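Input record, target 12 of the design panel.
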């Protein structure tokens, strides 16, 4: 349990001195935190609320440790050897329960950090959506006011490029969303299980400690039998520590390993179809593939060099089409 067999061994610190809280840094980013693109607003609220939950569990852990120390010091001044020893040992168990609560809060915070990957991706996708919509609106405006404007051709080519860029970004978003959502809540549920099972271990040994306290009533004038369970109480704490160590050894695939998995980030690329159905340009990530306008002629069958890589005919009119290759 990584602590002594007695709460009272730490006489130097003040009664109920709390563990330092997780510090929240101040930055310009925190000032801009409430200004989120429409696409990421809801997940931003989830992350923010989870942060409040993390703080609540940290506070609960610190309070549990404070209560443990206060209980131990109360038992010491009762002048009852049995109450003094058992309250001290129960305080050790309560203090470890508090530490587990803080560990759970840390794991929740780690899982919360995984969700930020989705939020950041959503924020990066919003500009491509806006750009596509802006160009489409401009085309509609020109068609109504100047239907013969030469600028329409340029805008339509820009729209094709913007739609291709947005298609790649949207594919990346859906891949990252599914992967990171699963990763985040796998980690959170693993943390819930770990916390619950360690609490059960500690609670069972806490009840063993209470069984060592003789609570049979005595009549006035009778002398209660002297306390002889000191060694047994220490053994209970040793057993609790051994059980926690055994749990850790048999559950090496815990929260940290879930978050630290080497997930290969799903990449999405696109290829612009060209003559003879071979792609003439490829791009990866959310950025643009190149400066060439994707205005091509030719058939619309799947590229000959596709192999096992899926292609999707995404945009076509009489003279233009765009193959999108999912890498």
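The sequence produced for target 12 reads:
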């Amino acid at each position: 349990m990584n602590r002594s067999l007695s709460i009272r061994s730490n006489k130097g610190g003040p009664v109920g001195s709390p563990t330092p809280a997780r510090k929240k840094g101040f930055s310009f980013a925190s000032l801009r935190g409430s200004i989120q693109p429409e696409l990421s607003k809801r997940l931003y609220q989830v992350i923010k609320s989870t942060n409040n939950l993390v703080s609540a569990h940290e506070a609960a852990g610190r309070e549990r440790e404070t209560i443990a120390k206060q209980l131990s010091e109360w038992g010491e001044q009762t002048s009852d050897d049995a109450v003094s020893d058992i309250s001290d040992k129960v305080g050790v168990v309560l203090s470890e329960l508090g530490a587990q609560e803080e560990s759970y809060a840390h794991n929740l915070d780690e899982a919360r950090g995984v969700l930020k990957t989705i939020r950041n991706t959503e924020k990066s996708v919003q500009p491509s959506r806006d750009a596509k919509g802006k160009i489409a609106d401009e085309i509609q405006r020109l068609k109504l006011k100047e239907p013969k404007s030469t600028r329409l051709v340029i805008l339509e080519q820009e729209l094709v490029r913007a739609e291709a860029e947005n298609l790649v970004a949207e594919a990346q978003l859906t891949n990252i969303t599914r992967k990171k959502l699963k990763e985040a809540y796998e980690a959170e549920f693993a943390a819930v299980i770990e916390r619950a099972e360690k609490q059960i271990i500690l609670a069972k040994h806490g009840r063993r400690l209470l069984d060592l306290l003789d609570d049979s009533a005595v009549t006035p004038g009778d002398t209660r039998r002297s306390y002889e369970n000191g060694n047994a109480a220490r053994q209970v704490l040793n057993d609790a520590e051994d059980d926690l160590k055994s749990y850790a050894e048999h559950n090496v695939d815990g929260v940290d390993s879930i978050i630290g998995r080497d997930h290969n980030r799903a990449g999405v690329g696109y290829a612009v179809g060209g003559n003879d159905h071979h792609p003439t340009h490829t791009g990866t990530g959310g950025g643009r593939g190149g400066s060439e306008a994707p205005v091509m002629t030719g058939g619309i069958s799947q590229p000959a060099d596709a192999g096992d890589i899926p292609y999707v005919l995404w945009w076509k009119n009489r003279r233009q089409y765009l193959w999108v290759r999912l890498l």
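The two ends are 49 Å apart (CA to CA).
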